[in-house]
Design a protein that fits this description.
With about 110 residues, this protein is mainly α. Helices cover about 80% and strands about 0% of the residues.
């Protein structure tokens, strides 16, 4: 019973130690944030352009699969459209995260 009590006490103190660690505060106002923003904008423009082109090609696969009654090609086109939309959404989120980080005035 003594070993169990010691184990519980040890686990309790470890938990308290973990819970009392101070939260780090990131600083997004350092040098190079503007360059990071411009890189994110260029990447987003490229991803958006490729996403639209890929989406149009995938939509063509959907149409061709539907006309030819080929369900496999149609499903591949649907997966392609969903992938293009997801890729553009992820790229758009990167620029938003950088803007959010810059607005945090952490001192």
């Amino acid at each position: 019973m003594n070993a169990l009590s010691e184990a519980l006490t040890s686990a309790h103190w470890r938990t308290l130690t973990v819970l009392t660690v101070s939260n780090p505060s990131p600083d997004f106002s350092g040098p190079g944030v503007g360059a990071l923003q411009s890189i994110a904008n260029v990447v987003f423009a490229i991803v958006l352009t490729l996403g639209v082109i890929g989406g149009l090609i995938a939509a063509g696969f959907i149409v061709v699969g539907h006309i030819s009654s080929n369900g496999r090609v149609q499903k591949m086109g649907i997966v392609g459209v969903v992938s293009c939309v997801a890729g553009v959404a992820v790229a758009a989120g990167i620029a938003g995260l950088i803007n959010w980080g810059q607005s945090l005035h952490v001192a």
